[in-house]
Amino acid sequence: MVVFGQDDAQAYLRQLLQQERIPHALLLAGKTGWGTLVLALEFARWLQCPSTPAGLPDCSCKACQKARQWVHPDIHFSYPVVGANAVSTDYLPEWRKAMGENPWLSAHEWFQRLGAENKQGNITKEECIAIVRKLSLKAFEGPYRILLMWLPEYLGKEGNRLLKLIEEPPEQTVFVLAAENTDAMLPTLLSRCQIVKTYPLPDETVAEALQSHQGLDAERARQIAFLANGDYHLALQMTQTLDSDDARLLVEWLRQCWRGNGTDLVRWAEQFAQLGRENQKQFLGYALHFLRELLALKVNPTLSVRLRPAELETARKMANLFAWEHITQLAARINDSIFHIERNANPKALILDASISIHRLFKPLR
User: Fold this and answer.
1) What residues contact residue 21 under an 8 Å CB cut-off, 6+ apart?
2) Above 70 in pLDDT, residue 98?
3) Span 241-245, mean pLDDT?
4) Same CATH fold assignment for domains 7-199 and 245-365
5) Helical (H) or strand (E) element with 252
6) What pLDDT does 55 receive?
7) Side-chain half-sphere exposure of 297, counting CA atoms within 13 A
8) Is pTM beyond 0.85 here?
9) Domain locations in the chain?
10) Cβ atoms of 304 and 223 closer than 8 Å
């Protein structure tokens, strides 16, 4: 596992180590594809590494070897899982395999690995109880007991169970959290953490990583890096193909909304409902990305936007046809749909209602 980019965040974390000012709760905030989780995993390794200076990339001590294989007895992992009473240890083999293959993976890909289908991931009450129990034990080997939690926003209100522990943890206990959406976290939980932000990786950094780690030629690496917009996980997906099912589905959906045939809209809603909630959220999230790039194209038609060629052609046609208010209203409707899907709304009824509303938005333009 290699950390690249996020130089400011890395420098700050090393400074904390050198000055021995380790906070009891550290929150790394940014998309996993930017390297946020990778950096959190490395910081946990640095904390357990006995070498000086701690955390050298080429360190081969036993503590670093165990940390790199995710088997260090004093580094505990917590992450969203599927099931009402599930805990992270139920899926520890899957977690280690996922980290070994791609520690830049998205939440959506993680849930697909767990076979989420129509279920949503969460961090359960039982998981919080297990965390309290784990951290009540003495350290086995390392100087710290570390709880590394990926996507703490999936705690929801269960985060209240950890507030006291995070505020007054046992001696030599450190929480390392890696979050993508801090707005979805409890304010009381956020207030107990020292926040370090991560940012989209520079295109040059992504391109260099694709060349050195994936063996891509320079031209294709630059093309993919530009489209990925600082997200290395997305770039890795694009190394396999530059096609996107989400892009195809979006164009198909907008065409159906434009035509407004009731039977076709119902059929499309049934197809959408079969995707499963995580796939539905993934698709609607892509739709928001497309609309953001469409707005940029609307501002400046010559602007290089982060869309694939086929998507760009569709966006240019829409930019000529739609006004600002049409695009913003469409984005608001899609954003509302994501909100309700996350709260277990009936997906067929929801997308059918959204499709009818979008058709009414398009109707004056026909």
Assistant:
1) none
2) yes
3) 58
4) no
5) helix 245-259
6) 59
7) 24
8) no
9) 7-199, 204-240, 245-365
10) no
